[in-house]
Write a structure and sequence with these properties.
heterodimer; A: Rossmann fold; 2 domains; four-stranded mixed sheet; 50% helix; B: alpha/beta; Rossmann fold; six-stranded parallel sheet; 12 strands; elongated
């Protein structure tokens, strides 16, 4: 098994990445502006729903139920999709999914008689997760991202910094520069309107000519074998309608039991994601429809680390996520750093619990600590994922892993904790240690606070006030005064 | 059956079995467990039909759609007027649209008899019916086929004229989904013109999908 989540394996820890980004005032302004706007819009559209909490409760129950009966629903989806003329493929990890996609694309291109293999893609985070674009390019297949923000990210050789609006770290002047260069334009206005029209013109030909489309899925409906793609620009409709061949990459947790369950999710998702009552377009299709749209349709069902999150309620619940991004917009950490500090395409609070778990706690291990545990993410989550509890659960796993590794056992933290445990069990030695610390702290004391402590304690005193130890402990005072009184 | 399929399903089963807290749920049939899902949110209409219609018109106007009110006999005149207002003379029409809807003169009618993509690109306006509409969110639902055309026909032209009967408008999404009869047909829901907020969160109307919608209400 080689599970891969974007470039998480090569990325530095959150504090290191965040330090760099915090110096970039432009990015911080862009992120702050974008999250402010979406938060306000979301709040407006959620407030007008008297049954919002009931919808959340139902969504959580549907997702929980589906995961407990996932083999049943996956097989039901598979059966119905095949009966409608679709083909279903299973992939254990990123490499397997990419290999299937490449094989299907090459076969379709050959059948269509095109010498250069190209695909048009509608926004799918799952494809970023498995690094599909670079895998396609290595096999001489050109992927065209058609979502405006994804196109901006692709042109800039950049990485998505948000689940819903992946280019929110770029302002329109930065976007204009990219468009001028990549669309080979000599003139282009600076307004968002000008840039959007340029994108429309640029992609139109691709939509009409490229014979293979790639999509993700917001929902895969077991009852009917249908896929549902939620979008705003119309690029999704183009990609799932115009090509002769369509391939949908679907995480196994995207399945929902019945068609009618969309009545819950299609109310929660647009209001949470973009603050709209309904997003401009939803496309729902089942297998192949004669005379309408692609006549060859494939679904790739992807595991890539999901199944190993299923043995524990805290971990399993992470798979409820419908990728609305609401938790990012309200997170006080995300709002300062933006998405790139997380080193994963899944950023913000949901990224902080999803990325390390998909990675089997091998990478993204700093992310469970990238939170103040304020709980705002849980409050806005439309499928009620208890993110703060999960963060704490994962911190526990990280510590447990460290304690069981050789390097962890002899690390400063590991040794320190063991020493502390010993002292807490031996009162005399504990008191001796207190006296010693009181003498030693003079070197670092300033106005009753400890500053610039050495070693791993520096991480604390760099940003926080730590009061110096008092000259007398309560126990010492008690011993003295009790005697005086007597 | 592939190895991957077996491994994925088998791993899920083994992982779930490793959680002692969910033993009773796993023993249950999926159907019985599904029936217990709480659905205390609003599913049925709370308003009377006139209020529902007003709400729907409001939502459509909110999306900058144009509204024309008429009756069955007035459809051709309404279409002629909408086309005149748009300054257009060629109308794409799915084969299932009844002849009685169409103006008899002054307008070029292009029937979508399996037109090629480049032929579909020519007309800037398309006329269709719809299956059901949701007042709460101003959403129009197409089940495609017949008078609703194939998906490309309502995607490539820039201006969509949609015939909506008043009795097709319901209040909630739950009611609308309940009215669909052909769940495995391609289904498209439309709420306003295509849009993006990807650049500085400024909402821009009209990206790749149609930029204009005229609702002809019967």
């Amino acid at each position: 098994m080689s599970v891969r989540v974007g470039h998480t394996a090569e990325k530095s820890a959150f504090p290191i990445l965040a330090h760099e980004i915090l110096k970039d005032q432009q990015t911080r302004r862009n992120v702050r502006h974008a999250t402010d706007v979406i938060r306000a819009k979301r709040a407006l559209r959620v407030e007008e729903m008297p049954d919002w909490q009931e919808l959340r409760t139902a969504a959580h129950a549907i997702k929980t139920h589906t995961l407990l009966h996932l083999p049943h629903y996956l097989q039901q989806f598979e059966k119905n999709c095949i009966a409608a003329g679709g083909q279903v493929h299973w992939a254990r990890d990123a490499d397997e999914a990419n290999a299937i996609a490449i094989r299907l694309i090459q076969a379709a291109a050959k059948k269509q008689g095109t010498s250069i293999a190209e695909v048009i893609k509608v926004k799918t985070m799952t494809s970023d997760e498995i690094g599909m674009n670079s895998a396609l390019e290595k096999n001489n297949i050109t992927p065209w991202e058609t979502d405006l923000a994804d196109m901006i990210v692709q042109m800039g050789n950049d990485e998505p910094s948000h689940i819903v609006v992946p280019a929110l770290h770029k302002n329109r002047h930065q976007v204009r520069e990219l468009f001028l260069e990549h669309m080979k334009l000599t003139e282009l206005g600076t307004e968002a309107e000008d840039l959007t029209q340029a994108a429309r013109h640029y992609l139109r030909k691709k939509f009409l000519e490229v014979g293979i489309g790639i999509s993700g899925a917001n929902f895969a409906i077991a009852e009917t074998g249908s896929i549902c793609v939620v979008e705003s620009e119309g690029n999704g409709r183009m990609c799932v309608t115009m090509p002769q061949t369509l391939i949908s990459l679907v995480g196994i947790e995207k399945v929902i039991p019945k068609f009618q369950d969309l009545e819950v999710f299609l109310q929660l998702l647009p209001r949470s994601a973009t603050g709209e009552r309904m997003n401009p377009y939803n496309s729902i299709w089942t297998g192949v429809e004669p005379g309408d749209g692609p006549q060859e349709f494939h679904v790739i069902l992807l595991d890539n680390g999901r199944t190993r999150m299923m043995a524990n309620v805290r971990e399993r619940e992470t798979l409820n996520c419908i990728r609305c991004g609401a938790c990012l917009n309200v997170c006080p950490v995300y709002r300062e750093t933006g998405g790139h500090a997380y080193g994963s395409i899944y950023s913000g609070p949901i990224g902080a619990i999803l990325s390390p778990q998909l990675n089997g706690m091998q990478h993204s291990r700093s992310l469970p600590y990238a939170s103040s545990l304020c709980g705002a993410c849980y409050e806005v989550c439309p499928v009620k994922i208890n993110i703060p509890e999960t963060l704490i659960h994962l911190r526990g796993k990280v510590v447990e892993q460290d304690q069981n590794s050789i390097t962890g056992m002899f690390s400063q933290e590991g040794m320190g904790m063991k020493m502390a445990a010993h002292l807490f069990e031996h009162p005399r030695q504990y008191e001796a240690a207190q006296r010693l610390a009181r003498t030693g702290q003079g070197l670092f004391e300033k106005d009753g606070k400890l500053v610039n402590l050495p070693g791993m304690a520096a991480g604390w005193t760099q940003f926080r006030d730590l009061r110096a130890l008092p000259q007398q402990t309560f126990r010492e005072w008690w011993k003295q005064n009790k005697r005086n009184k007597a | 059956m592939s190895d991957a399929r077996f491994t994925v399903l088998d791993t899920i089963r083994r992982q779930l079995a490793a959680d002692p807290d969910i033993k009773p749920e796993l023993a249950e049939s999926p159907e019985a467990a599904y029936a217990r899902i709480p659905r205390d949110y609003q599913r049925a209409a709370a308003l009377d039909h006139e209020e529902i219609l007003e709400l729907f018109y409001d939502r459509l106007r909110d999306y900058d759609s144009e509204l024309i009110f008429t009756d069955e006999a007035g459809i051709p005149a309404a279409i002629a007027q909408a086309m005149r207002d748009a300054g257009e003379t060629l109308l794409l029409v799915p084969t299932g649209v009844p002849q009685s809807w169409l103006p008899t003169q002054g307008l070029g009618i292009l029937r979508d008899e399996q037109l090629t993509t480049s032929a579909l690109e020519q007309p800037r306006c398309v006329l269709t019916g719809c299956t059901v509409c949701v007042a709460m969110s101003g959403t129009i639902v197409l089940e495609h086929g017949a008078e609703q055309g194939r998906r490309a026909a309502t995607l490539l032209p820039d201006h969509h004229l949609c015939i909506i009967r008043r009795d097709q408008v319901v209040e909630t999404l739950a009611e609308a989904l309940g009215r669909l009869t052909h769940l495995t047909a391609p289904i498209t829901t439309i709420a306003g013109p295509s849009a993006t907020s990807d650049i500085e969160m400024t909402r821009i109307r009209g990206v790749h999908g149609p930029r204009r919608l005229t609702a002809i209400i019967l």
